[in-house]
Amino acid sequence: MIDATLVELSRAQFALTAMYHFLFVPLTLGLSFMIAIMESVYVMTGRTIWRDMTKFWGLLFGINFAMGVATGIVMEFQFGTNWAYYSHYVGDVFGAPLAIEGLMAFFLEATLVGLFFFGWDKLGKVQHLAVTWLVALGSNLSALWILIANGWMQNPVGSFFNPDTMRMEVTDFAAVIFNPVAQAKFVHTVAAGYVTGAVFVLAISAYYLLRGRYKALAKRSFTVAASFGLAAALSVVVLGDESGYAITENQKMKLAMIEGMWHTEEAPASFSLFGIPDREAQETHYELKIPWVMGLIATRSFSKEIPGITELAALSEMHIRDGLLAYDALETLKVDEANPEARETFLQNQEYLGYALLLKKYVEDPRDASDQQIVMAVQDSLPNVFALFWSFRFMVAIGFYMIALFGLAFYLVSLRRRVPRWFLRVSFYTLPLPWIAAELGWLVAEYGRQPWVIEGVLPTFLGVSSIGISDILISLGGFMVLYTVLAVIEVRLMLKYIRKGPEQESGDDPAKLDAGLSPAFAKSQE
Amino acid sequence: MIFDYEVLRLIWWALLGVLLVAFAVTDGFDMGVAALLPAVARSDGQRRQVINTVGPVWEGNQVWFILGGGAIFAAWPALYAVSFSGFYLAMFLILSALIIRPVAFKFRSKRDEPAWRARWDAALCFSGVVPALIFGVAVGNVLQGVPFHFDSSLRPFYTGSFFALLNPFALLCGLVSLAMLILHGATWLQIKADGEPAERARKFGMVAAIVVIVLFAVGGFWVSHMDGYRIVTAMDPQGPSNPLRKEVVSEAGIWLNNYRAQPVLWLVPLAGFAGAVLALMGLFWRVGALSFLGSKLSVAAIITTVGVSMFPMILPSSSDPGHSLTVWDSSSSHYTLGVMLFATVVFLPIILLYTAWVYKVLWGKVSESDVNKDMY
To answer: Is B136 helix (H, G, I), strand (E, B) or coil?
Structure first.
């Protein structure tokens, strides 16, 4: 049987490296686009202040990008090093989007990003602008393919288990690519990245405005961030990725957990604004419910039901029993490849094979499992309701706060004469929020998928490599040390360059500089 | 599908080689330059000059490694699973080096203190030497066979240890790899740098070229006498990818079988030597372009030699030879290989096109006097 400590350590290392990597990704996604917008303004208007802005934010982008690249390398190889059985089991499906990501997206951004920094004197204005846009495009396409891979883990479409090769294989690539879960995730994630970029620029610009430094640059950056951020914040919430949750049974499980919804409600289901879900008693205490809202969020309809946790658990048990038939047939096929009866039985039940594998946590051969062990496996198929319930609520609250923040910012820069100092302060202190929301989002998506690594197909604990505990302790410790040191260096460098501020090459008269801006806002901060 | 399964497997075996060669030829000179950094550049100005020769391109070059990882995952999932988990601590060292490298390139120039810069220089040197050495050690172990087996569900088990990887033959391969990439870095500096660093690199490069020639010859002699692996049962090249359905024996001298059957293949290892000789001549007569082309040829041919010697083996198992991974039983499905080939045919030419454009824009030597204009 698989060593439980090994599983926990492997999961800890994956969570550590993935969540750490995900500190840098959203900012890359958003900032690359904002830099491209700033440089476009420079090329169109010829005002050098916009070039200074591009270079300044580009410098901070570069520090962040290096960390994203460095920590991303680990992600590409960690499936092989730490999740070897997973890699064998689903490589035929999961590997392809990763490889295509390299071919189509990462190559583009990584090859051209050097020219972004080194090419100012070597390229024409328009050429350099094209480079910047292609870097932004590359990083966004990168997110697309990674989320296609991740979407398949959440909703494994277009594939089947091949008993001859003992693994999942693709039957329909178009289904994998156009997986609705993947598409919803992509839109939600990049939009969240844009919000992160916008908050970053907004907060640092607010810092300069509060200090009365680099006003011309800070005001323009504030304006760009306000407008870009408003559009992005609206998209994140409207196109939230829970829209994908209603699609499959396991996604429904996640949805029920997020909702702390123990029993199926009549459609449209209500949304619990507050509550303390209690797994033992199977109910949510102190619930504060808003009618209809959950049904609308999850199904976009008034009539579709969202099943509750208890109902889903009952289904789980049925699947385990069907999965055992598939497992038994597969064992026969291992020794007698051609056995037609076993093939037939396997074909009929193969979609539930993964449920039988849940029992491997308790018995070597799932067919020997007792009824009590089956009940335990059913319990395992329920994710941690409390963590999901609250992660989701904090994330959503931050989402709505962002809409309010950017809505107000946009109103202030476009219509009002003056951005009050309290608002600048609020903007500055908002800085950590998008990162918190992004990490919570990761938690809801990935932790919420447990106990599955591929929903309904492969339980997480089975996916690990057969490596020694000491090996993983060394690597986990090593990553912790390395990542901590790098985090300290990165934050200090960022602070140094933010304090130092932009190098202004433009010899423009500050008074003239304000001419290109929204007239009301331009005069406001004097 | 246009191609049958056998042809696709052959194509993907060749593409695996192409990716590894592209990685070694492009990122190889970055690593060589990083390894040479403390030796060839003494002052801060010189170090910035040397770093700037690779500053704008290393990021793109490194993607060949990422792409190699992705392509192995997608096209040879069993190889991806067995090798990376088997070589666990070695992979951890490589990944650490590759984590430190981007950061070192980007962060070194961001502070003026000499101590800060000296630390990053040491980090860069580490990030060049360690992967170069380990890649060679890994290849040395692959040639000897690695102790692994599968259970009936195809869960891989590796039964060796990290220190067993460091055996004499593997260390020899590690040195070949290190010398080869140092040579490559040195010849790159001939065409991209001037002044003292280029001159010092030239001397290191000449030594490295001689080391490559000698050690590659020793390695070849060793390989001709050591145990290779051969499939002894009939295999269906169109069959499902299940590595448990064959028998394999290991005997001395098998790694020369392909050359005996197809003598024209001798040209491949020969090109490995010829490239190193050309690089040596180019360095000696100060013909930068010749030396760089020579080291490229040498790197490409030495890697190809390994693939050609082992075909159709990819990763032999020393403990359970029958479980060895071969071209015929460890690939992805027919459909996935086809889709991936389509993606490669579409995107690889585009990649080559913009990569070439980037190198064209950056054409010309980097002098010490240039560094103050640029970022690093």
So the answer is: helix
Cross-chain CB nearest to B153 (options A73, A166, A478): A166
| Beta strands, E only, B211-301 | 227-231, 248-252
Q: Which residues of B108-119 are buried (b: 16+ CB within 10 A; e: fewer)?
A: bbbeeeeeebee
In b/e form, how buried is each residue of A53-63, taking b as 16+ CB within 10 angstroms?
bbbbbbbbbbb
Ranges under pLDDT 50 in chain A: 506-520, 522-526
What number of residues does chain B have? 376
pLDDT of res. B374: 53
The pLDDT of residue A510 = 45
SS3 A83: coil
pLDDT tens string B202-257? 999 999 999 999 999 999 999 999 999 999 998 899 999 999 999 999 999 999 99
What is the rounded average pLDDT of the residues B305-313?
Answer: 95
ipTM of the complex: 0.92
> Helices B195-225 and B44-54, interaxial angle, to 10°?
60
Q: Bridge-partner residues for B229, per DSSP?
A: B250
Give the pLDDT of residue A520: 47
Length of chain A: 526
Tell me the DSSP string of A462-489: GG-----HHHHHHHHHHHHHHHHHHHHH
| CB-CB contact of A167 with A161 (8 Å) | yes
Relative to beta strand A271-278, strand A283-290 is antiparallel
Question: A161 and A128 in contact (C-beta within 8 Å)?
Answer: no
Q: Does the pLDDT at position B59 exceed 50?
A: yes
Q: State whether the Cα torsion B308-B312-B315-B319 is positive or negative.
A: negative
Task: Write the DSSP symbol of residue A308.
Answer: -
Q: Angle at which helices A249-259 and A309-335 pack, to 10 degrees?
A: 150
Enter the tokens of residue A128: 């350099």
pLDDT tens track for A392-423: 888 888 988 999 999 999 999 888 667 889 99
CB under 8 Å to A119, separation ≥6 — which residues? A127, A128, A131, B56, B361
Of B204, B228, B219, the closest CA to residue B171 belongs to B219
- The nearest alpha carbon in chain A to B62 belongs to A110
Distance from CA of A372 to the nearest CA of B (A): 26
Burial-class residue A439 by CB neighbours within 10 Å (0-12, 13-18, 19+).
middle
Cα separation values, B226 from B139, B247, B309, Å: 15, 20, 12
- Looking at residue A29, its amino acid is L
Instruction: Give CA–CA dist B124/B118, Å, rounded.
Output: 10
The tokens describing A418, both together, are 């003056």
Whole-angstrom CA distances from B206 to B50, B170, B370 are 18, 24, 27
Give chain B's mean pLDDT. 92
Residues 6+ apart with CB under 8 A from B269: B216, B220, B301, B302, B305
- Give residues with Cβ within 8 angstroms of B352, minimum separation 6: none
User: Which sequence spans correspond to the domains of chain A?
Assistant: 7-244+384-449+468-518, 249-309, 314-380
Interface probe with A: pick from B165, B236, B315, B333, most Cβ of A within 10 Å: B333
Percent of chain B with pLDDT over 90: 76
In DSSP terms, A289 is beta-bridged to: A272
Kindly report, residue by residue over B141-164, the tens digit of the pLDDT.
999 999 999 999 999 999 988 888
What CA–CA distance (Å, rounded) separates B218 from B20?
23
CA–CA–CA angle B206, B212, B216 (5° rounding):
160
SS3 B281: helix
Sort out which chain A residues have CB atoms less than 8 A from B362's CB and list them.
Answer: 114-115, 118, 122
Q: Are the C-beta atoms of B242 and B154 separated by less than 8 Å?
A: yes
- Chain B closest-CA separation from residue A203 CA (Å): 23
